[in-house]
Design a protein that fits this description.
Helix content is 68%, strand content 0%. With 73 residues, the protein is an all-alpha fold. α2 crosses α4. The longest helix has 19 residues. Pfam families: HTH_3 (PF01381). This is Transcriptional regulator.
Length: 73
């Protein structure tokens, strides 16, 4: 696994963990972020390389700072 894949996987796991801590369903977060549930599912599985803007929308809708989303990777 290369660095890019490892980073994508780490980001996906972090998003999923934070979403679950908030008690939010994947569908609900996807809707709030105006993205397809399937895209959020792929992101959480580490199968996509999200843009910074997408990560910002996710952080905003999880009511955290963007830094909190990526700081512990």
């Amino acid at each position: 696994m290369d660095d890019k894949e490892q980073l994508q996987l780490a980001i996906g796991k972090r998003v999923k963990m934070l979403r679950e801590e908030k008690g939010m369903a994947q569908q609900d977060l996807a809707a709030k972020c105006n993205i397809e549930k399937s895209n959020l599912s792929r992101l959480e599985a580490g199968g996509t390389n999200p843009t910074l803007y997408t990560l910002k929308r996710i952080a905003d809708n999880l009511e955290i700072k963007l830094e909190e989303l990526v700081i512990k990777l």
